[in-house]
Amino acid sequence: RIAYVNGRYVAHADASVHIEDRGYQFADGVYEVCEVARGFIVDMPRHLGRLNRSLSELSIDWPVTQAVLPLILREVVRRNHVVDGLVYVQVTRGVASRDFVFPAPGTRSALVVTARKADPAAAVKRAETGIKVITVPENRWDRVDIKSTGLLPNVLAKQKAKEAGAQEAWFVDTDGMVTEGGSSNAWIVTRDGALVTRPAEHGILRGITRTTLFDVAAKLGLTIEERKFSVTEAKAAREAFISSATTIAMPIVAIDGAPVANGHPGSVTLSLRQAFFDVAE
Ligand code: PDD
């Protein structure tokens, strides 16, 4: 495997960053994960648009010109022979002797790009089975709209899910409303067949898959209600699912151990999943 590290393509096993990289010390960095399907990087323009936003919210400079990053992503995918899988991009504020305040101007931000293969058959199987989620109290900061590498609450939540035999954890705010998953957006389908997902103005990451699913839903003639929903409503919903670059639309069959509807993946979720790649760019 090959990784891109600050201008060089290096063997993955030897790829490393400096011990005083601010990503390592402060999680002072941002990232993107893009799905690679049939050799194409799915929704790359939207991912790079969100990367630009994350960087600018944190006043981190672009490590390379915006025009060149797609070429690097494609090159890493190509060099790793990834046909189906994912590409990971991380930008940190760079290397500087440890100090909370920003380093001196001229300190170059650091760029790492990796890619890895995934088994599309395994994803199909997963979607046929569906996943289980648990709920955990929302305990993150209020800037989760920035795709920061500071993910400790997400790490702890997803580990807790794993220990409970589940695959994702849903964060729940103090009003009992679901915000999002540890690494995905949260959705339900109402009895009337409408899709419900939390507004992205506050409290969640504006998922790229979420945005593209809006387009998919429009194409399928499905109604979207962009509003908050509670755990109680989700448990009584016709369907529930998560979305992310790595899962697309993945059916949820149980929430906190209670089955969603008949405990099998829902047909609306599966049709969204089916139609996704016709709409994504
Ligand atoms: N996570 N919410 C959170 C907290 C996420 O970490 C992610 C993605 C999403 C979905 O965003 P998108 O549709 O753009 O992937 C929502 C990636 C996959 C990860 O951290 O691995």
Count helical runs: 8
CATH architecture assignment of the largest domain: Alpha-Beta Barrel
Ligand list: N-(5'-phosphopyridoxyl)-D-alanine
Q: What integer value in Å does the Rg equal?
A: 19 Å
> Percent of residues in beta strands?
25-35%
Backbone shape: globular
Averaged pLDDT: 97
Instruction: Tell me the count of domains.
Output: 2
Helix content: 25-40%
Q: Which fold name is given in CATH as the topology of the largest domain? A: D-amino Acid Aminotransferase, Chain A, domain 2
**Which CATH class of the largest domain applies here?**
Alpha Beta
Number of β-strand runs? 15
Poorly predicted runs: none
Q: How would you describe this protein?
A:
This is Probable branched-chain-amino-acid aminotransferase. It comes from Mesorhizobium abyssinicae. Its EC number is 2.6.1.42. Belongs to the class-IV pyridoxal-phosphate-dependent aminotransferase family. InterPro entries: Aminotrans_IV, Aminotransferase-like, BCAT-like_C, BCAT-like_N, Class-IV_PLP-Dep_Aminotrnsfr. The chain is of the alpha+beta class and 281 residues long. It folds into 2 domains: 2-118, Aminotransferase class 4, branched-chain amino acid transferase, N-terminal domain (D-amino Acid Aminotransferase, Chain A, domain 1, 2-Layer Sandwich), CATH 3.30.470.10; 123-279, Alpha-Beta Barrel (D-amino Acid Aminotransferase, Chain A, domain 2). It is built from 8 helices and 15 strands. The strands form 2 sheets. Strands 7, 8, 9, 10, 11, 12, 13, 14 and 15 form a 9-stranded mixed β-sheet that branches. It has a 6-stranded antiparallel β-sheet with strand order 2-1-6-5-3-4. β11 (195-197), α6 (208-220) and β12 form a beta-alpha-beta unit. α6 (208-220) packs across α8. The chain is globular. It binds N-(5'-phosphopyridoxyl)-D-alanine. The site of N-(5'-phosphopyridoxyl)-D-alanine has 14 residues, from α6 and β13.
